[in-house]
Amino acid sequence: MEELVNDKLLEDRNATGSDVASPSSSTSTESSEVKRKLPRKSLDVSGPVKPYHPRLKNFWYPIAFSTDLKDDTMIPIDCFEEPWVLFRGKDGNPGCVQNTCAHRACPLHLGSVNEGRIQCPYHGWEYTTDGKCEKMPSTRLLNVKIRSLPCLEQEGMIWIWPGDDPPTPTLPSLQPPSGFVIHAEIVMELPIEHGLLLDNLLDLAHAPFTHTSTFAKGWTVPSLVKFLTPASGLQGYWDPYPIDMEFRPPCMVLSTIGISKPGKLEGQSTKECTTHLHQLHVCIPSSRNKTRLLYRMSLDFAPVLKHIPFMHYLWRHFAEQVLNEDLRLVIGQQERMINGANVWNLPVAYDKLGVRYRLWRNAVDQGDKQLPFSKPM
Ligand code: FES
Ligand SMILES: [Fe+2]
């Protein structure tokens, strides 16, 4: 096993040609000291979000939960600034086609699904899951096909491949570890760029300041927060919290939290805790200022909770409360970023995982052949 280290942030920063930052401070003398030691910034995430690099599209993206897509329903989604719609074909398999009718650009999701074909609500043209138009009522059938994306279903999620490269044959697994039962699957549309949401989710140090009305109520502020990780990894654990966390490219965060009962932290490491909560966050880049968030929560205790009526609403309410505590801050960051502020102006030691995500994302955006921290699939 690789040695766990906690100074790699500094090494990473050196590796990218930057000097090491001192801990942040509030006095003007110390601030200029920090500035003096930072002649160049290692990370610059400022200004309006740039158009997405085509390479970021060459991944499988889990885009919806299977249970939300019935035989006769449609799910409209935006992904990389394009409108798509999911529906099930006659064989029950999901498909993803452009959400724009070939005839006169009507949104298809306002229509219906008939025998595995999506029917446009305007003049009734019908398309299969691979985009072929099979019905044009009241006129001669033309040979028309709209765009479709590779679309698969695995482990309770529907995945699409938005890129131009051929899709990889296998999908990654996002299942919780064995012994966990899924209790909630929640989808939210958020008015922030997905990278900013990932930055937020990969940061735990903000919890005792931001989440004072929800899960971090009553937490003391530790004298030191660290994220311990293998030297080359995108996963590790938080000290002093019993929380394991991983960034899974291109846009997923998995975390396991040791608890005694929901909302209560206990012990020093997840292994010392007898009960755990597992979370999956998928941050889909809908557009440059919108994210589709898929959240899945699992527990390795109290399976009976799953059968309590309306429990799902409670989980959703709690998830929204937590997210709202973050959102007002991240929306503010986004506004400042668009106006030129660098949201990664001065990373410190506990920002390690977020910094690594940004190094990975920068490499994608620059078209680097070898992506940092990437595990072979
Ligand atoms: S716009 Fe869709 S059938 Fe006319
Ligand atoms: Fe948060």
Automatic annotation (TrEMBL):
One of its GO terms (molecular function) is chlorophyllide a oxygenase activity. The keyword DNA damage does not apply. Residues 1-14 have a biased composition (Basic and acidic residues). It comes from the Eukaryota. Residues 60-160 form the Rieske domain. Residues 1-46 are annotated as: Disordered. Its main location: plastid. It is found in: Plastid, Chloroplast. Keywords: 2Fe-2S, Chloroplast, Iron, Iron-sulfur, Metal-binding, Oxidoreductase, Plastid, Transit peptide. One of its GO terms (cellular component) is chloroplast. Residues 22-31 have a biased composition (Low complexity). PROSITE patterns: RIESKE, RING_HYDROXYL_ALPHA. The keyword Signal does not apply. One of its GO terms (biological process) is chlorophyll biosynthetic process. CDD domains: Rieske_RO_Alpha_Cao. PANTHER family: CHLOROPHYLLIDE A OXYGENASE, CHLOROPLASTIC, IRON-SULFUR DOMAIN CONTAINING PROTEIN. This is Rieske domain-containing protein.
